Amino acid sequence: MPPLAGVAQTGALPAGPSLTGPVPKHVAIIMDGNGRWAASRGLPRAAGHKAGAEAVTRCLRAARANGVDYLTLYAFSSENWRREPSEVADLTGLLRFYLRHKVAELHREKVKIRFVGEVGRFGQDLCAEMARAEALTEGNSGLTLLLALSYGGRSDIVHAARALAQAVQCGDLAPDAITEDMLARYLLTAGVPDPDVIVRTSGEHRLSNFLLWQSAYAELVFLETLWPDFDEDCFTRVLNIYGRRERRFGARPA
Ligand code: IPE
Ligand code: IPE
Ligand code: MG
């Protein structure tokens, strides 16, 4: 098999079955289970990450085919720096490969790419490639793909709080004038609607510091599927589960 076979597999979009409920505008996914996928096959964890990267291509195809506007993928948390340096290097290598070989194709597909997280920690070269990818795709009108890399929800909120504190200190803002919308405008996801649904694969039932502010009213969907096995059918399953949920936002049940 050639390395990262999924890279070349975009092509025509799958038709996608007809869905009954509303399609979420913003789907966010905690892509978990690469290590267990590899272990169950007697493979090194790196093989799981490589297969996980191929699942990203399938997921993106499914999101586009179903008319999702925003797809946020949690690829590396601020806590994932605690992993073995060799595993971090494997993940960084994959990121570099995709930035070099995939961005042009995403651009042709009119995907708008945005990175959220403390991406400076990946070093100057990668950071520059990420900035180039964002600049190249900025004007695209298709799906917006947010890649959460070195992302932490608490840190996101702390940075927003600091920016607001700065404005207060300068005398530009009264503490009482701070609103939820204002704080949201300082988050890394500024301008992006909150996720309608947050999916986590691999059977874990936690957020692991993902979109803590933005998840306030997200529907949570937990799948047993390990991320490298995620495919278009899994995406449809998520949409069907979401479509059956009744969202109330605190109001009286219908
Ligand atoms: C998700 O898979 C990928 C990252 C967190 C980078 P894991 O590497 O966490 O896989 P498991 O949870 O050990 O199976
Ligand atoms: C969460 O998965 C982060 C990503 C999927 C990128 P982890 O595997 O790092 O989360 P924990 O450690 O099980 O909570
Ligand atoms: Mg994990």
TrEMBL record:
Instruction: Please list the residues that bind substrate.
Output: 33-37, 45, 49, 77-79, 81, 83, 200, 206-208
PROSITE patterns assigned to the protein according to its UniProt record, in alphabetical order: UPP_SYNTHASE (PS01066)
Q: Which InterPro entries match?
A: UPP_synth-like (IPR001441), UPP_synth-like_CS (IPR018520), UPP_synth-like_sf (IPR036424)
Enzyme Commission number(s): 2.5.1.-
Q: Which Pfam families match?
A: Prenyltransf
* Required co-factors: Mg(2+)
GO CC field: cytosol
Q: What is one Gene Ontology biological process annotated in the Swiss-Prot or TrEMBL record?
A: polyprenol biosynthetic process
Which terms are listed as keywords in the entry?
Answer: Magnesium, Metal-binding, Transferase
A GO molecular-function annotation: magnesium ion binding
- What positions does the entry give for Mg(2+) binding? 32, 219
Write down the superkingdom of origin. Bacteria
Q: How is the cofactor bound?
A: Binds 2 magnesium ions per subunit.
Q: Where is the active site?
A: 32, 80
- Family per UniProt? Belongs to the UPP synthase family.
Q: How does it assemble?
A: Homodimer.
State what this protein does: Catalyzes the condensation of isopentenyl diphosphate (IPP) with allylic pyrophosphates generating different type of terpenoids.
- Mind telling me which NCBIfam families this protein's record contains? uppS
Q: What is this protein called?
A: Isoprenyl transferase
